[in-house]
Amino acid sequence: MIPLFALAMIAAEPPAAAEAPNALSPEMEKLLEDCSAHKFETTIDVTVEGKPKKSKVKLCGKPGQSDAAWIGTLKDAIEQTAANDRMPGSVRAQIITALSNEITRLSTQAAAASAPAIVPLPAPATTKAVVPLPPPQPAQSTNELSGYSTYQPLPPPLPAPVAVLPGATSSARPVRLLPKPRMTIACFTPGDVAGEGPCTSFDRDTMLVVRAGENLPAGTSLRFVRSGESRADVVLAQLARGKSARFVLPPEVCSHVVGGNLEIRIVRSAPGVGPEGQVVGSEGPYNLRC
């Protein structure tokens, strides 16, 4: 895997220092200049000497690296960024969000490429004429057919029962209910000797650790709802069973407030469940101190 040299350089130094000569080893400089295999690049907002500025983050893959190995490199970059205490929390959040979005994009492309093509059946060579059936004959009584009984036609079958969500009208369309994936959510504050543990409250520097108890399906994310208002979504990028993801509390949660309550909702996106996805579980509410 490629070390996260570019991300660490930008987070620890102002842009002028990052552009200074000999800031990187010749091997890393050559890799950044080449970047012919795989490349990740994004722009983040940083503050240098009290002034807001834009800064670029760039990460390159090794020549000959497969697409799957490149996704693994991006996941390692997320873990390294989350564990880098020298980066400000807002910088880490921007980088982790951009990396997660890139992993989701690449995973979606890979799934679409591997899906089998749908080939339409050929049209029939000839068209046969449709011959109408004769009209039904009236039922005959036992007097007309000696020795046989006449049975009336069976009533039409009853419609199959469908699940309707509570509060929905009888005319509402049936809803596809998705299962909640198996996962655990823990919290810790960088520098705290207590280490990782159950989430009890949140502040702007709180780090979250999500561990997958199964292979998380595509489209699984965490939605952060502050005082009843959705503030941010974090995509979990199809975590494999036993793997974990670390990220800082999204800065949008603490934007323009000093506190409140926070609920974490587990959301799944799938065809037929609507653009907002379907909430399949929740954690909290927790106290929020910004």
Short account of what is shown:
By secondary structure, the chain is an alpha+beta fold. It has helices at residues 5-12, 15-18, 26-34, 67-83, 89-114; strands spanning 39-48, 51-60, 183-188, 197-198, 201-203, 207-212, 220-226, 229-235, 244-248, 259-268, 278-289.
Structure characterization notes:
It is a single chain. This protein is of the alpha+beta class. The protein has two domains: 1-111, no CATH class; 178-290, Immunoglobulin-like, CATH 2.60.40. The chain contains five helices and eleven strands; from the N terminus they run H-H-H-E-E-H-H-E-E-E-E-E-E-E-E-E. The strands form three sheets. A five-stranded mixed beta sheet has the order 5-11-10-7-8. Strands 4-3-6-9 form a four-stranded antiparallel beta sheet. Strand 7 (220-226) and strand 8 form a beta hairpin. Mean pLDDT is 77; it is low at 8-23, 141-149 and 160-164.
Question: Which tags fit this structure?
Answer:
single chain, 290 residues, alpha+beta, Immunoglobulin-like, 2 domains, five-stranded mixed sheet, four-stranded antiparallel sheet, 5 helices, 11 strands, 22% helix, globular
Helical content stands at 10-25%
- Which sheet architecture does the biggest sheet show? 5 strands, mixed
As a whole number of angstroms, the C-alpha radius of gyration is: 29 Å
CATH architecture of the largest domain: Sandwich
Which of globular, elongated, flat, extended, rod-shaped describes the shape?
globular
CATH topology of the largest domain: Immunoglobulin-like
Structural class: alpha+beta
Strand content: 25-35%
Low-confidence stretches: 8-23, 141-149, 160-164
For the record, the count of structural domains works out to: 2
CATH class of the largest domain: Mainly Beta
Instruction: For the record, give the distance between the C-alpha atoms at the N and C termini, rounded to a whole number.
Output: 36 Å
